[in-house]
Amino acid sequence: MKELPIGMQGFDAIRTGDMVYVDKTDIIYRMVKNNRQCFISRPRRFGKSLLVSTLESLFSRGTEMFKGLAIEKLWTERTYRVLRFDFSGIQCDSLENFQKAAVRKFLRVAMKCGALDNTYSPENFTGIADLMDEITMNMDIGSTVLLIDEYDCPLNANLDNPEVFNGIRKAIRDFYSSVKENSDRFRFIFVTGVSRFHKVALFSAGSSIEDLSLNPLYGAMLGYTEDEIRHYFSNHLKAAVSSIFGISTDAVTDVQISQVMDELRVHYDGYCFDEEASTHVYQPWSVINFLAPNGT
Length: 296
Prior knowledge:
Low-confidence stretches: none
Strand order of the largest sheet: 2-3-4-1-5
Oligomer: single chain
Order of helices and strands: HHEHEHHEHHEEHHHH
Number of strands: 5
Distance between the termini: 17 Å
Number of helices: 11
C-alpha cells in the first residue's frame, strides 16, 4: 500500500517516494496549452503549492518525474528556466520589512536558477519590482516560466493594518506591472492565492493574467473528487473502514465503504469552484488526514 503524502507539497518528493499522487496532469496540460498567463484562487490546504511544484518539475525537467501519468504522452515541450516565487513566510509587519525579506528570498531563487549571478546583493534593489526589472533585462523571449505561489499571503497577514496593507499592495502591484511589461520574456506565468486578483485591486496591473478560478474546465484541478478518492485511495479507504467497523480488511464490503463515503461527504464535501456547479471536490488535507492510520 502506497504511503500517504501527509504534509507533502513537493511533487518530485512524492513521486520519488512512490506516495499516492492523484493524477491531475491531463487538466494541467489543458491549462498550459490554453493559457500563457493564468491565476487560480483556492482556500488553504487545497494543494496549490503542490500544483506549483508540479509545474516547476514539468517545465524544468520535462516528463522525467511523470512516468505513467496522463501528461507523459502529451507533453512535447523543451525545458525552461523556472522562477518560483513563494510569498508565504515573508516577514511583512511593515512595508520596509516586506520589501527587504522578499528581495532576499527572491534573489536567492533568481541566483539558483541562473537568472542572476552571485555578484548581486539585496542592497542593489529598492524592492521586488526593481528586482524583477533586473531579472528580465537579459532574458530571451519566451525563455522562462514564472510561478508565483500565495501572492496574497502578506496582504492577508495585514488585513487589520490598513497602512501596511496598502503599502504592500502597491509593492505587489508594481511587481506585477514589471511582469506585464516584460511578459514576452515568459513562456508561461502562473499565480496562486486565496483571494482573487480583483478583490485586492491588483488585476488592473496584471490584466493579461486570465483568472481561471471559476472556469468549469479547471473545477477539479485542485481538490479530490469522490471518484478519485475511491480510485487512488482505495486501499487506505478499505483500511479506514476496517478500523471503524473493527473488522479485517478482507471482510470489508462495498456497502460499508459506501457508508464511510457518505460520512466523508457530510463532513468534507461541499466545495464547488466552477460557475456551472458541475464539479464537487473534497479538501485534500482533510481527506488524507482522515485516511491516515491515526486519523480514524
